[in-house]
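Crash report, auto-generated. Payload:
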Amino acid sequence: MPETKSQSFDESQSAPMHKALQREIQLARNIQMKLLNGEKPELPTGEVSGISIPARLIGGDYFDFYPLGDGRIRILIGDVMGKGIPAAMLMILTRGAFRSAAGAAQGPGQTLTMMNDAIYKDLRKLGSFVTIFCADWEPATGTFVYANAGHSMPIVVRSDVGTVTLPVLKGVMIGGLPGQIYKEKTSHIQRDDLVFLYTDGIVEAQNAQGEMFKLDRLSGILVEQSRQTAEAIQNAVVEKVNEFTKGLPQKDDITMVILKADGDQRGV
Amino acid sequence: MFKYELIDEEATTVISFEGDLDIDATELMEEEIAPKLYDCSNIKIDFSKVQFVDSSGIGLLITLIHHLRERGIRVRIFHVSDEVRIVFEMLQLPDIMGADVLPEFEHS
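Recovered output after restart:
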């Protein structure tokens, strides 16, 4: 019977199909990891570090560094709505928009404006959006100019003071409304400050009891580790989140970017 | 786990959401809740039992509201908890969804 034939054909194809799918997801993961974890920019002073840990094989979080060639560096962290492969595809779209805008835009506000102009229609068509925090940082002077498209504000830890708050800046997420003009604010990052940019996957990481990692716990770790190198701080946060979740699969991707103005190697 | 309850009060349909609004609510929202609401003309969403919403949940909500309004259905969200209000305000949802959808919020 034709139906039986067709059914047996499908069954015989399912194992190779599954294997091919697995292989393609793995390849997609490799591409994403290579794009995300590119070379860290060399800075005359200060240091940067970043990591993204997808909740599934691939994720929708994104961070990037774009040296502006005049001692400033443009930094971006973003969270694409959704998880897994669909979010990863939109993350690539976001990356393309950032890379195109970053070279032409005067500042972080214009970068977000250009990104929204470029991908708003696509995101609306797909019913998605991206939250982004973007900043221009000049480590030599400490000037930190930032713009925000619906993302969490960074945490700043100041030695001997603890956490300090940057003036809050709001903005509609990318893909939220057309023709948005993103405002900028300017702050000053001191020589021994730690600036921690993150996506909500960190503070919303859950343990088996359903408790969340929360902002207070994260801030405590950053205060404790603030004199370490950017990479050591990053490793400490990842370790603490892992200790908390005990390997429980997470719903959201975890991404962080760390900026250290002094960039020295002092231990606590 | 995300749940909902639908009550018809004369000309208004009240839908109460309960639980975490995140990616796990996708199928329920898209395949069950949305089609049920398409026949209504006036909807109130009670958000009082939603204590957590993440970016995926916000996306689901925006898409739902967008599809309802496209069909000429009046929809308003009430009783947003403090935790969720912070997220809504950070994302400027009154601007995105329309101030009339979130009457408890100040329009910027």
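Post-recovery validation: Helices of chain B lie at 26-37, 55-70, 82-90, 93-97.
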